[in-house]
Design a protein that fits this description.
Blueprint (H helix, E strand, L loop, with lengths): L2 H7 L2 E7 L2 E6 L1 H7 L5 E11 L5 E7 L5 E6 L15
Antiparallel strand pairs: 1-2, 2-3, 3-4, 4-5
Length: 88
C-alpha cells in the first residue's frame, strides 16, 4: 500500500504531487456522504509509524497551517471512515 492508496481509502482524489506535497480534494464517494465540497487542500505526510499491534498509521497535515487534516490506521477504522474506489 502506498500513500496514494491511503488517500483514496480516506476518500480523496489526488490532483498533483510535488516535493512531498499532495494537492487533494474530496472524491466522489466522500462527497456523496458529506456533501459537495470544491475545496482543495495541500497536505504532506506528517507521521508514519506502527501502532502497538503492528498496524500502519499515517497522519496528514495541511501545508502552511500544520493542522492535522486526516489520519489513517490500518485495521483500526470503521467502515464509515473508509471509501471504496471502483478502480482499486
Amino acid at each position: 500500500m502506498n500513500i496514494l492508496e491511503v488517500l483514496w481509502k480516506l476518500g480523496y482524489d489526488v490532483l498533483s504531487f510535488s516535493n512531498g506535497v499532495y494537492k487533494i480534494k474530496f472524491g466522489h464517494e466522500r462527497e456523496k456522504r458529506h456533501g459537495y465540497c470544491d475545496d482543495t487542500y495541500e497536505v504532506c505526510v506528517s507521521e508514519v509509524g506502527f501502532n502497538g499491534f503492528g498496524n500502519l498509521y499515517v497522519f496528514f497535515q495541511e501545508v502552511g497551517t500544520n493542522n492535522c487534516l486526516d489520519a489513517y490506521e490500518f485495521k483500526n477504522m470503521d467502515s464509515d471512515e473508509l471509501y471504496n474506489r471502483g478502480d482499486n
